[in-house]
Amino acid sequence: MAMKLLMLVIFFAIMVSVGIYARKHATSVDGYVLGGRSVGPWLTAFAYGTSYFSAVVFVGYAGQFGWKYGLASTWIGIGNAIIGSLLAWVVLGRRTKVMTQHLNSKTMPDFFGERYGSKALKITASAIVFIFLVPYTASVYNGLSRLFGMAFNIPYKYCVIGMAVFTGIYVILGGYMATAINDFIQGIIMLGGIVAVILAVLNSQGGFIQAIKTMAEIPSDVPVTMGQPGAFTSFFGPDPLNLLGVVILTSLGTWGLPQMVGKFYAIKDEKSINTGTVISTLFAIVISGGCYFLGGFGRLFDAPELHDEAGNMIFDGIIPHMLSTLPDILIGIEQLRRIIAALILQCDNFLCTHTKDKCVFFANFFNDLNVCSIHGSQSYSTVQHELHVTGSRSFFGSCRDLLRYICCCKDPLCVGYTIIFD
Among the residues of 70-155, which ranges form H helices? Predict the structure, then answer.
């Protein structure tokens, strides 16, 4: 337990330090949301991969599909790497970078509004992104809470509150550049962590060959191959057609996620896109392929606590139960990976739903908040309506005044102001 707590403390310290370091890139709206459109290929590729393979994939999908399809679920990871990463970068990367830079759009809703000259379309897109990211974010919290409960016995509600508070501070500090840097750090942890976890899990089952042999003895409970032994170790699994559908769904679906496509907005240049394509694809093969490969051995860890009162499998509990058998050091590494993934996702959600017509807060918690002029990014004119806070003690009072002001606006959705606490 002491080792896991120490790793958490070190992790939080690093994240806050990165946020403080990245504040120099968040001096404008463009710098805050996109890192000044100067993010390199390594940071962008790792940011894309870590946003793709969050707790939803590792805890939810890997456990569920690994249980259903056995070792053949590894094809899902391969499909994610080829279709969800390689093709996405080839098809969307350069086009998105060129078009969004030409239109000076910073988010997907912003792009729709500028591209089609429609304020209503931008507002509608923002609403869609906000509404449908809520259940996605909830699933991340669900996966994270299970890991927290397994590793630290922390109740769900305290986990949610702590994550929300820490994410709020972190987002305000560093913006997108801090997110990208921490994505890179997370990516390194993920690469080492997934390999170590797979080796440890297989070793606990007597090695790779013995684990395969045990899996082959389990009869299929899938209607297509009911009762057949060896179905869960076959090349295409017990239900190939449904497996193909899952591959397509989990691979093509990411092409429309704003937190994924938004990475192309911030990359430095077209040369970086070519380099990032290779890095992102290799990263996806290791991480996604490794997650689903690990999940494929889930049936070896079947236990009564993984079933509800009706006898149905609780898929979200499979991976945490597998990890509970590992040494504390590996649990700590995996826990760090999930925490970072959840935090990064919250940063992405915040930045993706932001447009120039929404409020952006840059708060400096370490200095008094001073009066300063506010200018639009690029060639935009100075913002006319401003809110300045001259001291940190008046922060909450000013927030109350701001909310009262917003409520009095006749058209708050169509008239936006940038409020900067600097």
Answer: 74-79, 88, 94-103, 108-116, 119-152
CB distance 136 to 341 below 8 Å:
no
* For range 260-266, the mean pLDDT: 88
Give every CB contact of residue 411 below 8 A, 6+ residues apart in sequence. none
d(CA 317, CA 336): 18
Place of tokens 């008239």: 415
SS3 366: coil
Mean of the per-residue pLDDT values for the chain?
A: 75
CB-CB contact of 64 with 315 (8 Å): yes
CB 236 within 8 A of CB 8: no
> Is residue 258 within 8 Å of 122, Cβ to Cβ?
no
Task: Identify whether the C-beta of residue 121 lies closer than 8 Å to the C-beta of residue 112.
Answer: yes
Tokens coding 95: 């086009």
- Name 267's bridge partners: 39
Question: Measured between alpha carbons, how far is 69 from 295 in angstroms, rounded to an integer?
Answer: 9
Largest pairwise CA distance in the chain: 73
**Contact call for residues 413 and 123 (beta carbons, < 8 A):** yes
CA distances from 177 to 78, 173, 351 (A): 29, 10, 11
- Of 102 and 419, more confident: 102
Q: Are 320 and 305 in contact (CB under 8 A)?
A: no
Q: 375-395 b/e with 16+ CB inside 10 Å = b?
A: eebeeeeebeeebebeeeeee
Tell me how long the chain is: 422
Contacts of 291 (CB under 8 A, 6+ apart): 53, 57, 58, 61, 62, 77, 194
Phi and psi torsions of 219, nearest 5°: -70, 150
Question: Which residues, including other chains, have CB under 8 Å from residue 228's CB and lie 6 or more apart?
Answer: 219, 220, 238
Assess contact for 302 and 71: CB atoms under 8 A.
no
Q: How far does Cα 256 stand from its chain's mean position?
A: 14
pLDDT tens for residues 42-88? 999 998 988 888 767 877 788 889 999 999 999 999 999 999 999 99
Give me the phi and psi of 379, to 5 degrees please: -105, 10
Dihedral over alpha carbons 34, 38, 41, 46 (to 10 degrees): -30
pTM for this structure? 0.72
CB-based contact 15:249 (threshold 8 Å): no
Neighbours of 307 (CB within 10 A): 13
